[in-house]
Each structure stands twice: as structure tokens, then as C-alpha cells.
């Protein structure tokens, strides 16, 4: 009989556990949020800071706020889809949800060769909004920073008075004016929904990567120093999708490192076929030793994105045992992505007009 | 015959000339702006940086922009009236004029014991707006930062990307986040009127105190780095009214240092009678040596605020010669202020409602 294998208990998760300890975060226990959603089951969303308030609200069917965002510094790739999947999960769990497209943030915090102007940031923003709508985010749930109300901007500036130069430098290592601007906008994003004129003070959840925890801590600190009775925001942390090559981040700036949501079938096929695999040197060796799904990029995509948990688990087991070849695994991945993204892209086009209205304001 | 005396050629102006040289500013020549307004004649507005463009526009009756502002960190005093008088002068000269009440700036750049909250800053803002309206500033010429359009805030943030941490520190000696916020809002105030959606690129004039020239230079630098074709803004510099006591600034935080625009007749009388005077120890000595109008606070008020240049010149001559006693001079000043401010205060009350609408937004 085969050794019991836990596909979610990989070495990578152990690295994250070390990280969690370092940052003082807690793991999200099973069934903590009253759901067995695959994002939790597969430990894609795996850690938190002060999530008890949200868990209680979900249990008691009381309202809470969710704020998630993407900076519009390039086209969306699969890594961004994780943010959106998590957003939709918390919405299902009852969150009053808002999704911010951070266009000002994208421009002020990125170098000019990446985002040369607000015009460029807004073009990306309009594209991202269309994708969000295609994924099922509602139009009233989306806002773009540069189209916000004055009270939002006022809050960003108020936040800037509540952080000292030394505290900022201690956290970020610099006091770069553009990046400082990006930060105070992020604080406003997370906190402004608790303003009386919006939904009033209540628990809120924002999901981010672990490396963004310093932002989270400063934001929680600032929330207490502002005179609006804010409940300290809660945060949950998700794993990052890695790049398609070995030891590489999935990044919009390195073209073949990522599957973009706009990629066509031949792009997908080429990129997955060239992606780093956990297969062995020869077919014989592969059958004998089994593949290594933990480092296989095609497998990672299925693990992070395929909604059918049974299929993902079987794939893991069959690949690990050597029964499934690298070619077969890549084929499953290519078919899954091609079908999912083709359907998605058709929807995206149908939302272009309304997306432009959200990004540029109604004419 | 008496020695020719030039009341505007005082020692204080010489100090300013030294300052001008240090800052690289130019003196405003006589008749430069096609007007013999007392603010220019008396060298109250006395220096400039790049004002030629404005002088040309005035001469050719072409449009130009004026932006002036007051931070709402306390009640208005006579020193602030200078800003308003200068504003009205440039409006008469043909400027498309806007007056900003900097409420966010006031909150983020002042310590909490001075401006503890935006609520407080807005209360001051509403009061200041009522005063502006009473002085004849039109309601459509006034805006409050916290009520501005998104494009204004976007511009402030864009400006933050165009200044480096080192340049900011070199100019201000710090990178205090709240003060940085105040600065980028000031850049947006001065520049946003040149946005296409407002009046489009054209020469603009902003009048400030000489010590604010570092802001002016950074703002001019930033204007060229933004992608909106801005004309570099011009600046003119005015003298500051000094405090009522010796060697003291006129400041909202030191109560008896200033005549506030809300002061009642008994306040005015008390403060002027206690103010530092240029009179001699005894009446005999005063008659023999003459008074020193250059250091006399009652005289300074007439010089800076009394619209009748002939009266001011005669007062100077008679006081200087010893013919006019300190008591007489103070009486002229008290009567002038009492009449001016009483009338003004009645008007202010009639503008309270509309001022609140401007400061808090229409309900």
C-alpha cells in the first residue's frame, strides 16, 4: 500500500510556517471560517492577523467589510486571479465587499520605466476592471482610486499625520515621497469603508501576501490613532504563485514567467510546455521514482486554480507515484487553462464599455 | 524746509533687499503691472520670481491665473488680510482667480495641540470663507481642499513622484510624512488650475511670504516634470505684518500679538493702546526728536491696511516730525480699525450659511 500523502503538507508550506512565526502570524485552523472552500483546504489562504472578529461575524451572520486591491501596473496574470478568487470566497461568506484598482498607487510607487504616467495606469485599470467583472465581481463593488470621493483622499492625508518619519523609515528603509503616497492611499483603501458616511465602524478583512505584513501592522496602528472609532482591520495571508521557470516570481515584467489572463491558446501551450517540471530525466526513472509535484509548475497551477479538489488530489497522487507522466500533467494543465481563459476572455470583451466608465468616470 | 522723506524706503525694506538677493528674487519695478495700487506703491508686494509673463498678460489684456491660499489653522488676523487685498488687486488686473482654504494642509502640517482634527480645521475653514465673501471674494472663486475633485488629489499624488527624498530633505531638513502631504497639496493647488479640464496651461501667479520661496522653487521644478504642458508658475512676495509687541510675529497662537478680524471695539482699543510704539519717553523729547514710525505698530497697521495713501503719508510725516503724538496716532489707528472691522463683521455674519455650504459641501 502506498504511503499516505498530503498534497497540502508540502515543503513549501513548511517554509511559510517559518515565515509565519517570524512575522507573528497565526495559521488559519480548519473550518475556522465555516466553509470548506478549496482556498482554505489547500492552504492557499493560510495565515492571519486578528481574524477572530471576522470568524465570529461569519458564524453569527453579522455584516463585515472586505477590501482587496490590485495595483494597475500591468496586465493581469494568474497570480492576480488568487486575489480575485479569495475576494469571491469572502463575498460568499457574507462580506460587504469592495475591490480597489490602485491606479494612483501603481503610478507613484513604480519606476517610470514600468508605469510612466497616470494615463498608462488608467489604461491598465480599465483592463483590470473588465477582468474583475468577467470573474463575477459586481460593478458597484469596484472602484478606481483616481475616481474616489474627497472623503477618501482626506482620510489618506489624515493617515499621513499619524505616522512619524522614523517609524516609516524603520518599516520601509526609506521615506521615498512617491512610495509614502502609495502607502497612505492603501491605508485609506482599507479604512475608508468604516467611515460613517460609508458603512460605519465594523470588522474588516483584507487579504495580502505575507511580505506585505509591515503595511498591515502600520495600518492597524494608524486605525487607532484616527478619530473615527475604526475597528482595527484584520488581515489574512495567501501564498504567492511562483514563476513558470525555476526560482522565479510570477511577474508581469518578465513575459514568459507568467500566464497572463489575456494569453491565447498557443501562448498557453508554449509557456506550459517550457515551464519547469518535476518530472525525471527519463521515462524509466520517472516510473521508478515518481515525479515531484511540489516543484512542478503545471501542478502548481492546478493546485492553486483548479476548482475540482478531487481531480487535483488524484493528479498529485498519480504524478507522485510515477503513474502520470510530465506530458500528461502538462496536457491537463494546458486544457484547463485554455478552456478557462478562452471563456473568460469572451466575457471580458463584453465588459469593456462598463469597465471604461468605472476607470475614467461617466462622461 | 523739511528733509524729503520716503515712507516706503524704510530700513525694513533694506533688510528685505538683502533677503531678496539671497533668494535670487527680483524687485517689482514701478508701474510694472500697469497699476499704481497702494500695495505696490508702498512696497507691500515687493519682489517676484518670473513675473514678466504676468506683466505681459496684463499689458495685453490676456487671461492669466491667480491662486492664493490660507491654511485654516486658526481665526483670521490682520496679517491674513494682506493676502486677501493682494488677491483682490490681481483680480482687478484681470486674473482668473481662485482662493483655496487649505484645511487638509492645516491639519496635517500643524501639531495636534494647534489643529487637533480635520473637524477643527473645517470649522476654521467655514469661518475663513465667510470672511473672504465679506471682503468681496466671489463664492465661485473659493474652494476648500477637502471638497475638491478627484483630479486635484490625483495631481497632488503625481507631484509626490516628481520629488526625491534627498531633494525634499535638502530643502526642508526633514521628510515628515504629514508635512510632505501638505506640500504636495500646495503644489496641486498652484498647478491644478492649468489642467485641461480646468483653464488649461497659462501663466499663473501666487503671492507668498519670502520665507516660502523654497516651496515656490520646488513647485516650479515639479511643474516641468508633469506631463500636462504646465507653464511654470510665477510668484510674487509680500512683506509680513509684524506682531503688536516688539520683535514678535503676528500669530494666531499668541492672542495679544494680533488684531483678529473678529475683534470687538474694546479688544481693538486695548491691543492698540498696549502695542509697541515709536514714540519718545516724554512729550518734550517726542516734539524735539520726532517719533519713529518705522517701528510703530499703529503706524504699521495704517501703512499696510489703510487704503488712503495721502492720509498714510501725512501721518508718517507728522509723526516723524514730532508734530503728531503717539496718542493721536493710536487714536487714528483705533478709529480706522474699529470702523473697518465693525462693518466687515456685520457682512461676515450674512455669509455664514453660504460659507458652511462651501466648507462642508452642499447637503
Give the topology, please.
Two copies of one chain form a homodimer.
Chain A (H helix, E strand, L loop, with lengths): L10 H13 L2 E2 L10 H4 L3 E5 L2 H8 L4 E8 L6 H15 L2 E8 H7 L8 H18 L6 E3 L5 H12 L3 H8 L4 H15 L12 E6 L3 H13 L8 E5 L26 H10 L8 H7 L7 H9 L3 H13 L4 H25 L1 H9 L3
Parallel strand pairs in A: 3-4, 3-6, 4-5, 6-7
Antiparallel strand pairs in A: 1-2, 2-7
Gap from first CA to last CA of chain A:
67 Å
Report the sheet with the most strands of chain A, covering strand number, pairing sense and barrel closure. 7 strands, mixed
Query: SSE order of chain A in H/E notation?
Result: HEHEHEHEHHEHHHEHEHHHHHH
Based on the structure, what is the oligomeric state of the protein chains? homodimer
Largest interface by residue count?
A-B, 33 and 33 residues
By DSSP (H or I, 4+ residues per run), the number of helices of chain A equals 16
Strand fraction band of chain A? Answer: 5-15%
Q: Pairing-aware structural class of the strands and helices of chain A?
A: alpha/beta
- Give the strand order of the largest sheet of chain A, numbering strands 1, 2, ... along the chain: 1-2-7-6-3-4-5
**Helical residue percent of chain A?**
40-55%
* Rg from alpha-carbon coordinates of chain A: 21 Å
Average the pLDDT over all residues of chain A and give the rounded result. 92
Shape of chain A: globular
Number of strands of chain A: 7
The low-confidence runs of chain A, each spanning 5 or more residues with pLDDT under 50, are 1-15
Amino acid at each position: 500500500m502506498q504511503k499516505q500523502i498530503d498534497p497540502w503538507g508540502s515543503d513549501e508550506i513548511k517554509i511559510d510556517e517559518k515565515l509565519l512565526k517570524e512575522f507573528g502570524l497565526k495559521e488559519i485552523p480548519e473550518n475556522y471560517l465555516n466553509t470548506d472552500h478549496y482556498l482554505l483546504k489547500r492552504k492557499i489562504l493560510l495565515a492571519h492577523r486578528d481574524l477572530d472578529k471576522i470568524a465570529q461575524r461569519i458564524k453569527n451572520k453579522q455584516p463585515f467589510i472586505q477590501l482587496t486591491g490590485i495595483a494597475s501596473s500591468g496586465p493581469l496574470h494568474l497570480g492576480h486571479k488568487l486575489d480575485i478568487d479569495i475576494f469571491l470566497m469572502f463575498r460568499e461568506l457574507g462580506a460587504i465587499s469592495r475591490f480597489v484598482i490602485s491606479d494612483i498607487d501603481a503610478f507613484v510607487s513604480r519606476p517610470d520605466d514600468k508605469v510612466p504616467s497616470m494615463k498608462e495606469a488608467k489604461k491598465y485599470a480599465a483592463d483590470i476592471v473588465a477582468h474583475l467583472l468577467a470573474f463575477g465581481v459586481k460593478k458597484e463593488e469596484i472602484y478606481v482610486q483616481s475616481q474616489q470621493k474627497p472623503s477618501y483622499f482626506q482620510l489618506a492625508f489624515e493617515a499621513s499625520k499619524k505616522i512619524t518619519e522614523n517609524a516609516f523609515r524603520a518599516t520601509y528603509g526609506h521615506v521615498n515621497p512617491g512610495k509614502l503616497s502609495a502607502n497612505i492611499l492603501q491605508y485609506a483603501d482599507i479604512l475608508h469603508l468604516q467611515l460613517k458616511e460609508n458603512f460605519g465602524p465594523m470588522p474588516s478583512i483584507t487579504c495580502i501576501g505575507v511580505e506585505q505584513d509591515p503595511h498591515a501592522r502600520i495600518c492597524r496602528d494608524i486605525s487607532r490613532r484616527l478619530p473615527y472609532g475604526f475597528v482595527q482591520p484584520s488581515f489574512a495571508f495567501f501564498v504567492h504563485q511562483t514563476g513558470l521557470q525555476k526560482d522565479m516570481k510570477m511577474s508581469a515584467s518578465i513575459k514568459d514567467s507568467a500566464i497572463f489572463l489575456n494569453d491565447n491558446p498557443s501562448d498557453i501551450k508554449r509557456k506550459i510546455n517550457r515551464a519547469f517540471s518535476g518530472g525525471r530525466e527519463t521515462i524509466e526513472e520517472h516510473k521508478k521514482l515518481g515525479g515531484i509535484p511540489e516543484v512542478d509548475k503545471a501542478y502548481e497551477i492546478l493546485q492553486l486554480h483548479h476548482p475540482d479538489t478531487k481531480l487535483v488530489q488524484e493528479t498529485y497522487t498519480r504524478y507522485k507515484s510515477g503513474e502520470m507522466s510530465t506530458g500528461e500533467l502538462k496536457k491537463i494543465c494546458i486544457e484547463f487553462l485554455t478552456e478557462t481563459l478562452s471563456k473568460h476572455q469572451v466575457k471580458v470583451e463584453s465588459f469593456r464599455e462598463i469597465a471604461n466608465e468605472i476607470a475614467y468616470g461617466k462622461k
